[in-house]
Amino acid sequence: MERRAGSPALTSKRSSSAPPPLQIGAAVEGRQDSRVLIPPTTRAPERPPSDLIWSLAGESMGTTWSVRLVPPMGSTQDAFQAAIDEELARIIALFSPWTPASEISRFNTAPAGTWKLSDDFWSLLNAALDLADDVNGAVDPTLGALVDLWGFGPPGPRDPLTPLPSAEEIEAALAVSGWQKLRLNRDAQAAVQAGGTKLDFSGIAKGHAVDRVSARLTAMGATSHLVEIGGELLGRGVKPDAQPWWVEIEAVPGSPAPHTVAALFDVAVATSGDWRRAFVHEDRLYPHTLDGSTGRPVDNGLAQVTVFDASAMRADAWATALMVLGPFDGPEFAEAMQIAAHFVERTPRGLVERMTPAFAAMMDEEEA
């Protein structure tokens, strides 16, 4: 959600190194103000195409979406609404396992064999496999069988009489999962269905959709806009008053941390949390983020990861991967990759935050 505030300019001073881990309650004791994040920019803002701001919204991909845009002169809101709806419907027709006729559903239910893929599907699958390779499977597009097994996929929640899958069921799902097992025929632009393999792009789908909608708006002349789908956001350009698109970053429920606001100027932000899409059994939380190395929901103490990146799809993927990597390997990997990431861990002392140098560099010098 956009936050209206008297915010600093994009050229504010930034810190250059990450602070040590901090207990959130202690870090903000006595503070009532907001933490302000200003991502670095490589270009000066262009003048928006008009002095208007239109707000559009709808539902898609099992969630809600919202767009704020500065329209070019002579355009209509109906045209932009139709274009956004069309773009999202196209993504669902390709990548939604909840839609029986979608391309991903057809592949997931196909018998063993080699199946040719559309250009867009092929492109996203390869991008997802490249990301999986970068993080050794911490984000993996082949975990659909495990997603279904744990009650987070199209079949719906598990039977209350058997709330957790057995070790044998998990092993069976792992046997048909794993990005390294998926064979591709690059000459034919095809993937091999080994029998029972299920693709799932939930780790990057919303981010990919945000990128696609943003590109569509830009092509229509709305070069200044803010796109949000299910909490993943991307801002382009500035508003007519020359302010960037200010947004408030979602916090862990019950966290005493200060409000965090960020200027989204040609940058995206994605958040992954253990409290989103989860179930509780015998006082234990089972989040929807799965660890492909174990076949089970992550259980490493991380409550939330927030990532900034030029691409919403990459931000979405990194946030998922860092949740899987955990509170120690995650920050180490993110720092090595120069990812702007913020981590919140649940500990016996309470919530503890860590941040990479790239994230700390976005903070006001006073905050850092």
From TrEMBL:
Keyword set, alphabetical order: FAD, Flavoprotein, Lipoprotein, Magnesium, Metal-binding, Transferase
Gene3D superfamilies: ApbE-like domains
Superkingdom of source: Bacteria
One Gene Ontology MF term: metal ion binding
Cofactor(s) named in the record: Mg(2+); Mn(2+)
Enzyme Commission number(s) of this protein: 2.7.1.180
Record field: catalytic activity: L-threonyl-[protein] + FAD = FMN-L-threonyl-[protein] + AMP + H(+)
Keyword Metal-binding included in the entry's annotation: yes
Positions of the UniProt region annotated as Disordered: 1-34
Binding-site residues for Mg(2+), renumbered to this chain: G203, D316, T320
Protein name: FAD:protein FMN transferase
Source species of the chain: Brevundimonas bullata
